[in-house]
Amino acid sequence: MKKHFRRAPYFLFAILLYLNVSAQDLLKFEVQSGNFDRTDCPLSLSIDQMNCNTDSLKLALFEVKGKTETAVPFQMETASGAKVWFILSGQTLKNTKRTFVFRKMLNPQTFKPGISVVKKDGALNLKSGDKPIFSYQIETVNPPKGVSPFYKRSAFIHPVYSPEGEILTRIQAPDHYHHYGIWNPWTLTFIGKREVDFWNLMKGEGTVRFAGLISQVEGPVYTGFKSLQEHIDFGASGGDAVAMNELFDVRVWNIANQRYLFDYMSTLNTPLDSGILLAAYRYGGGIGYRATEKWNKDNSSVLTSEGKNRKNADGSNARWCIIEGESASKEGRSGILFMSFPANRMHPEPMRVWPEDQNGRGDVYFEFCPIRHKDWKIEKGNDYTLKYRLVVFDGKMTPEEAENYWQAFANPPLIVIDNRTTKK
After folding, report:
1. Rg (CA), the chain
2. Which of 2, 312, 341, 361 has the greatest number of beta carbons closer than 10 A?
3. What does pTM read for this prediction?
């Protein structure tokens, strides 16, 4: 008995020490909102400085408010160093701070992916629960019967749904069979002195096609995919040839409010020794959007970051643009906020906005067009990236909300690390 009681204190001490180690703080940091209100803002943080090499303990993230701690979903990337993504959830007022801590634990709370991606009916279909968000077409879609087969193509986003299920995109409109929801071909291009049009498919000069799925991910913070899209030159010597390769990277953020938020990134390069010239033109590349056939000049609107509307937005430059119109949602309106990233070519980006008399009824088309006013030469051996963020919504979006979304995209909140918790 003496041996038993003599060892008990050491045994209890070992348990307490073990429990203490199992809740070890690794890194504490503040998120400072800065001069703008923030709403469901995606943030990333390098965690290379943390000592995460352990077999039995796992990483957990908590938000700390006084004596209350709330577990926060996060998602790790390791492609180039360890980085985590998380959502600064809800409303964060300007000039305020929120505190977080990474901790090692035995059994941290687990979070399931909030958004799924399912390959079905020739497309990658992204959903929030049972609600569809959008589909990315990986199989070729043929034009209607009796229409030239030149109009067929893949590698586009359609349909795009509002949170209440309103379809906001259109493909193969009889006035423009080559329009495909949200897509980004280039129009007036030159390989040497030869013109190649990847936009106006009826000319039979080129097209864009899905060439393979590179990766796919589902997680508690974001769900997305990377694909290869090939810009095909039909007039190349020796037959059809790739004029440009495009890494298409799409990421849908798992935000809590009643809006959808997704990033759309295009990285171009060319295998051509002579390169390819994307000549200045009012259409081409960037991100193009053919809106639902429900919208016309009388029931929809355009508003840019510079305060321009449909009457005067065409050819102007903007950081963001709201396209919205009448819908069957409870609020009676739905729309998409398009945002351009500051590193994009010609940012703030030129736009193509259809005039109010388009097709007689004022059909709606919008595009960020980085070659609207100036040629762009794509040289072999270099990568060229364009990045956009979209917010899909029901109801109305104010200019103040749009600006805050853009600031979160372009100038995210500052993360300040407490170096006292950093492991060397």
Report:
1. 25
2. 341
3. 0.93
Neighbours of 220 (CB within 10 A): 19
**Size (the chain), residues:** 424
Q: Tokens standing for 355? A: 């005039």
The first and second tokens of residue 340, run together, are: 């351009």
* Cα–Cα distance measured from residue 224 to residue 260, given in angstroms and rounded to the nearest whole number: 13
Answer for the pair 229, 126: CB distance below 8 angstroms, yes or no. no
Beta strands in 155-221 (DSSP E): 156-160, 171-173, 176-180, 182-183, 189-191, 194-196, 206-217
Nearest to 311 by CA among 353, 281, 282: 353
Q: Walk me through the domains of the chain, giving residue ranges and CATH numbers.
A: 2-103 (2.60.40), 115-410 (2.70.98)
Separation between Cα atoms, residue 371 and residue 288, nearest integer Å: 13
Place of tokens 């351009």: 340
Q: From first to last of the 424 residues of the chain, give the pLDDT tens digit.
A: 444 444 444 444 444 344 444 568 999 999 999 999 999 999 999 988 765 554 456 999 999 999 999 999 999 998 878 899 999 999 999 999 999 999 999 999 999 999 999 999 999 999 999 999 999 999 999 999 999 999 999 999 999 999 999 999 999 999 999 999 999 999 999 999 999 999 999 999 999 999 999 999 999 999 999 999 999 999 999 999 999 999 999 999 999 889 999 999 999 999 999 999 999 999 999 999 999 999 999 999 999 999 999 999 999 999 999 999 999 999 999 999 999 999 999 999 999 999 999 999 999 999 999 999 999 999 999 999 999 999 999 999 999 999 999 999 999 999 999 876 544 3
